[in-house]
Amino acid sequence: MSKDTKAAQKRIDQFFSGPGARADDWRDLVEAAKVWARGGDRAAYDEALASLSVTEEFHGYPGLQLMAALREAASSGDAAASRSLATRITQALATRSFRQHAGDWNAKDDGNGDAPELISPTFAGHKARRPYFETLIVTGISSSQWPALAAEWRKLRRPEDGFIYEPVIVGSLEDAFCATMLNPNLGAVVINEGFGLRSRHDAPVLRSLTAMAGLEDESDASALRLAQIINRVRPELDIYMISNRDVEELAGNPETNVVRRIFYSVEELLELHLSILEGIQDRYDTPFFDNLKKYAQRPIGTFHALPIARGKSIFKSDWIRDMGEFYGPNLFLAESSATTGGLDSMLEPTGNIKKAQEKAARALGADRVFFVTNGTSTSNKMAVQALLAPGDIAIVDRNCHKSHHYGMVLAGAQPLYVEAFPMTEYSMYGAVPLKTIKQALLNARAEGRLDRVKMLDLTNCTFDGHIYNTRRVMEECLAIKPDLIFLWDEAWFGFARFSPFLRRRTGLGAANEIEAWMRDPKSVDAYEKQKAQLGKNPTDEVLLSTRLVPDPRQIRLRVYQTNSTHKSMSAIRQGSMLSVKDVEFHTVEQQFKEAVFTHASTSPNQQLIASLDISRRQMELEGYGLVANAIEIALAIRQAVNNNPLLSKYFRILGADAMVPAQYRQSGFTDFLAPGVNWANTLKSLDEDEFCLDPTRMTLVCGMAGYDGTQFKGILANEYNIQVNKTSRNSVLVQSNINNTRSDVAHLIRVLAEIASEVDRGLVQGGENARKTFEARVKSLMKDVPDLPNFSHFHPSFRGDSGTKTNEGDIRSGFYAAYDVAGCEHIRLNDPEIDRRLKAGPELVSANFVIPYPPGFPIMVPGQVITQETIDFMRKLDVKEIHGYDAKEGLKLVRTEALAKIGRPKPGAQPKLKAAS
After folding, report:
1. Who has greater pLDDT, 609 or 209?
2. Could you tell me if 817 and 864 are in contact, meaning their C-beta atoms sit under 8 angstroms apart?
3. How confident is residue 866, by pLDDT bands cut at 50, 70 and 90?
């Protein structure tokens, strides 16, 4: 990276630079100090220190005094002292030792520095490790008084406090916003009145955004306005307000619901200190995990059906003791099938599981949350079963996870499949265009069956990282059907709640924004204005091309979101959460209980439940920084691959310009690494574009190196101990998460460089024949790719009274048609009979789901008519794993004579259920 580029990125409004970039800046400072200490140019050190000083104002450590000591050493020309102090600070930041050791706060390393005054009462004297956080203090007092103010806050520390925090002081709204965005260690914010609007530092992009938000005059810098802004970007932070005015009136203002507590003046500073600690403790408490730890330490006699409980059958055995030694005693001490003695029932939680779920709802912005211990496959099936009845129609992404399709089978609901845009070159699909969804709703309305359309069921983000504009999708659909239920499968996207950039693209994030919009009187005006513009009977063409505004008075906001907590947070495998924000939940609550009883185990794993509880705690207290780091890791990987001359010859990570067609990128956004891209124009893309990419999900094209996705995945796993996610014909999916480090990045890049070098050597040493063979292989992988098959239609036997425009079908009947062995047949894929029937009939009707991996979604569902394009695709597939298909037997089909009997009531049988109204 050039110096000019690095300098541009150090402005305080460049928020793509996360914890790793800060660490790099400190290491750069140390290197510059070493050069100066060896007699080299001092200017580089001065420049680095000046640049670093700006953003370090927003962090508790190294703090005002240590930064002042650095500047003093530089101004006195003491290169040795500058190098020594910069090195110690950098090491303390890297190891995070400053959180526990008072010596790291000394300006000198002789133990006789100013630490007692700086942090008194000291960190020391409290033997137990205390979690550390920082508290943002927004004040209007002069910056010359900030050291004294910080000292006053430090005097409040007590040895009995469960946590320790360091104050971070700013004097303007813009600086408070920057600190909130740049400092992942913040746990609380204290807002005094009387601060200014503008930052003291250069922030041109920030200025344009504050202008867009109407923050143009100093009078706009109100404490309440700042509290609302901070709550919007960091909803997990506790906010406290200190007012010199009528606090009673302020406390009664509904707009202050973003504030945890309001204080009058500074009359109770100790009370404020205790409130801050209490707020952190509230997020730190894990009701189930805390009780499970207590349960494990009690002497309990177990006379229930769980022999492994307490571990005696393990540790007394000569044959399986190694499992106990591997896992340790606590795992078995905490095992129980009991729901008493401090534990709780997953089926009917009334105690600590209930409390843990309530905390999870707060953390995720939901009304309620269900813990699920069978994975998000079960969460999806629970939601579908609880919300849909036989005959109900659900608009479903055909490429969604198989659990949704099976959920429709269980519920007896009729899926109306809609297609995502294809990415044929990479053998994958994107997401479903909004126009396609609206057309399905309008078709249902035209045929008088809109009342039967109960749900829109979509995957967000997709396996490959496509993110919907969730707010726009919901608003435009609600404009057509105000009571439509939305189920957002966000199995891979649970972490997005803790990113201010990505949160707006989640189902719950958008639902909360829509809810706030509905309360705004301007929402009715916006609806009435559009209603007048469209006229009484606008055509479907007009409705499809218009950004529809729903009637806020008619909306019944019903949003469900499933998250694989184990896929993006620190939960054990199969840990999932089902979040609810539904004004009509009381009407389906009993159905949800029945769905829980149907799918949840009566013997859930205690450690799994505890990990769900713990993962919520972690994300509320440090999720913001962890997600920022995951995004930073992903951007580092993208840059290292695409900008490296060797790697980019054979590998490429696809940007938005390759993954999202231009018509769905209305902002013109192309890639995170494009010149001139910063957080402001990325935010514009997140707000305006129909589809965006999750930056943490990276499609790494390996076909240019002559490897198909499955082959390359195997090489990485077997030869280099690198695990990646899904594959396509010519790519693998690389995903960064909250667990990744810069060392992981270095390992991946080194491995890719080694493989690229091997390809290079092979082409050089192999001669012309090797080059031709390689080019043919690349052409086969990158050019000769099969067309992706769309869903065709359900056979008329499974369509009942379906209309001509809509394409829903009775998938349940299709599924159980396969149970009639005599009514099914098998034909091998390459049998000429397949081709004959495709041309002359009778139609080929699938008897089951056929799911190749990749791409990992059903290319056939029960009752679907099989077309030529599907057969062509299957014949070109070179994957080994195809669920629902046995190559020896061939395709399983419903016989023509069996199709004729389907739907006819058998003698004495009950007639089919009518469609639910």
Report:
1. 609
2. no
3. very high
* Cα-based torsion angle of the residue sequence 72, 78, 81, 87 in order, rounded to the nearest 10 degrees: 90
| Rounded Cα–Cα distance for residues 730 and 708 (Å) | 5
- Residue 333's contacts (CB-CB under 8 Å, 6 or more residues apart) are 296, 297, 310, 311
> In this predicted model, what pLDDT tens digit does every residue of 656-681 receive, in sequence order?
999 999 999 999 999 988 888 877 78
**Is 515:502 a contact under the CB 8 Å cutoff?**
no
Confidence tier at 890 by pLDDT (50, 70, 90): very high
**Considering the chain, what percentage of its residues have pLDDT values greater than 70?**
92
pLDDT at 124 over 60: no
Angle value at C-alpha 867, between 863 and 868, nearest 5 degrees: 155
Q: Where do the domains of the chain lie?
A: 10-109, 130-280, 369-608, 622-776, 793-903
Residue 15: per-residue pLDDT: 52
Q: What pLDDT is stored for residue 11 in this prediction?
A: 53
CA dist 272 and 270 (Å) reads 5
Q: Which pLDDT value is given to residue 456? A: 98
| 567: exposed, middle or buried (Cβ count in 10 Å: 0-12, 13-18, 19+) | buried
* Peptide bond just before 604 cis, omega within 30 deg: no
Write out the two tokens for 845: 């009707």
Which alpha helices (H) appear in 301-351, and where do they start and end? Answer: 312-315, 321-327, 329-333
Q: For the chain, how big is the Rg over CA atoms in Å?
A: 30
Q: Give the model confidence (pLDDT) of 763-814 as tens digits.
A: 999 989 999 999 999 999 999 888 889 999 999 999 877 667 888 999 999 9
Phi, psi for 693 (deg, rounded to 5)? -105, 135
DSSP letters spanning 694-727? -TTEEEEE-GGGT--HHHHHHHHHHHH------B
Cα dihedral 805, 811, 812, 817, rounded to 10, equals 120
pLDDT at 113 over 80: no
CA–CA separation, 458 and 436 (whole Å): 13
Give the contacts of 777 (CB within 8 A, at least 6 positions apart).
706
The CATH class of 130-280 is alpha beta
Say how many CA atoms lie within 13 Å of 631 toward its Cβ: 25
d(CA 860, CA 815): 12
Report the pLDDT averaged over residues 162-180: 93
**φ and ψ at residue 576, rounded to 5 degrees:** -140, 160
* Options 1.10.260.40, 3.30.300.30, 3.30.870.10, 3.90.100.10; CATH of 793-903: 3.90.100.10
Secondary structure of 423-488 in HEC code, one letter for each residue: EHHHCEECCCCHHHHHHHHHHHHHCCCHHHEEEEEEECCCCCCEEECHHHHHHHHHHHCCCCEEEE
Nearest alpha-carbon partner for 403 in 392, 415, 391:
415
Write the pLDDT tens digit of every residue in 49-90.
988 888 899 999 999 889 999 999 999 999 999 999 999 999
Three-state DSSP class for residue 237? coil
Per-residue burial over 575-612, b = 16 or more CB atoms within 10 Å of its CB, e = otherwise: bbbbbbbbeeeeebeeebeebbeebbeeebbbbbbbbb
Q: Helix, strand or coil for residue 576?
A: strand
User: From start to end of 491-611, where are the E strands?
Assistant: 558-563, 576-582
CB 669 within 8 A of CB 656: yes
CATH class entry, domain 369-608: alpha beta
Residue of 650 and 345 predicted with greater confidence: 650
